[in-house]
Every structure is written in structure tokens, then in C-alpha cells.
Here is the input.
Amino acid sequence: MLQKSNPKNDHIQIYIKDKLYPRHQAKVSVFDSTVQGGDAVWEGLRVYPQGVVCLDKHLTRLQQSAKTLAFTDIPSKAEIKKAIKLTLDANAMDDNTHIRLTLSRGEKITSGMDPRLNQSGSCLIVLAEWKPLVYDNNKGITVLSTSQRRNAPQFLDSKIHHNNLLNNILAKIQANVAGKDAGLMLDDRGFVAELNGSNVFMIQQGKVYTPFAHACLPGITRNTVMELCKDNDIQLIEADLSLSEFMNAEGVFATGTMGELTPVVEIDGRVISRDSQLMDQVLKLFKDNIRRYCEPLS
Ligand SMILES: Cc1ncc(COP(=O)(O)O)c(C=O)c1O
Here is the structure.
């Protein structure tokens, strides 16, 4: 699945540091930390007319990721919300919108890794685009297990939502070469961690399973699914799960803000069952409830 550019995004306004710029003038310096070392943190947000899905949780994760990376001037939630509102209002966006929210460590006085070279403060970027859900959630996606392992905490904690995405990009390249939609990444022990850009769940004998968040991003959509299961008396189990367990599951689906809930229909050429009524129930519960999770900006 290759995303296409949308002409509606040709003239969008993008917020950088303290003001809005038209798309073609929206640039960061070659001295910016994102360019120098992927030294930035980010969130993907989805906008509905009712507000931004799980906004507070996304802002908490952004701030916590920045704290772990020892950013010194992390903007407050109120400041970030103000920048998001300004951007959405400037683009008259209130639906079918995805926001790439980035907080870079900012501009350096000279190239180099050392954060002490960052003397101009952090840089917040609000890139809002017209972007409906990226997958066809009726058709589902095919995935390939990749040789690229997802980071466990002893390497680079996957709980930090940072911009150094090469680990996941290498997995995506392997999937692309094989003509599949996404790369399925295992952890350092060989258990399933997540897809290169989303979390995974499976159904077996009336229960919903998902890998522990040891070597995956603890996704906010993942958390919503877990909450919905709990509220609806559906048994949800976090576990170490092998590739074989996923291949033989009664249903498998991916979760993420970009695509919401997407059935996985093939893993390494093995067809994955689509017959699970429980999986259909979970997908429907999410669709029916997602707007309840929206938070207005003012
Ligand atoms: C590696 C990875 N896993 C999972 C997700 C899904 O997370 P969320 O549900 O918070 O969008 C993302 C989204 O950014 C991601 O980058």
C-alpha cells in the first residue's frame, strides 16, 4: 500500500516553532536536530469534528519521550494545544485530518551530536494534512515477518516515541521488497513485537491477545482497544506470543492512529482466518466508540 499525495494538501499552512508558513516555505534549518540525528520526538493525531482522538494521552507521551531524551524546554500541553488549534483553524480542518506533531531538540550552533550545542530552544512542528484512514480496513493488509528486530529496552527503549525510525524503516523496506503491506517485527527473543508502524492483536478461543509492551510502542489505539475489551467483558490478555500463534489465530488485526483497526489477512504467505465474530465485535466496538475519545481543543 503506497500512499498518494493529495492535491488538497498543496496549499496547507504548517506551524513551525512560533508561526505558520505555507507548505512550500515550511522548512527547518540544516542545523536542526531532526536533520542531524533524528533527535526529536513525535505523535500522530487524528482529527474528527468532535476533536482530537485521545489528545491528552498523546501530549503526555510526547512530553514523556522528550523528558527521557533530556529536552530542557518542553512546551506545556496548553502551548501545544494552542499551536494545534491555530494550525487546524488556518486550514479549516475538522475531519479526515491527520497531524504529524514533532518536537525537535531544535537548532544547533554547529553540527554534532552533543545536546549542549542546542542553544535556541526546542522546535514544535504541527503538520496537519487531509488524510483519511490510510488502509482499506475492509480488505485488510498482508504482512511479512522481517529479520529486523524491534528494540527492547537494553538497546533503545521502544517506549520513547522518537524520530530515529530506521529500525522500523528497514523492516518496511523488507516488506516492500516482498510486495507486502507492512513488516512484522519480532523482539530480541523471537516473540512478536509489532508491525513497523502499528501494534498487533490476535483472537484465539474467545479471547483477545496482544504482545506485552516490552519491545513495541505502547500504542494509544492499542490502549483504547484494551479499555473497550475491559468495558465490554471481553477477556484481553497481554502475553509473549510467537509467530506460529499469530499464523494460526482465528483473527489478527493491527492498531494505530493512521489506520485505526485493520485486519491482517496474510502473514508470510499463510492466509489468516477472517471468520472470528469476536474480532468483528472488537472492530465494531472501536468504530462505534472512537468519537467518544475525541477531545475538543477549546
Ligand atoms: C512503531 C509504532 N507502533 C505503533 C504505533 C501506533 O501507535 P498509536 O496507536 O499511538 O498511534 C505507532 C504510531 O506512531 C508506531 O510508530
In short: Helices lie at 33-37, 55-68, 77-90, 166-177, 220-231, 243-247, 277-289.
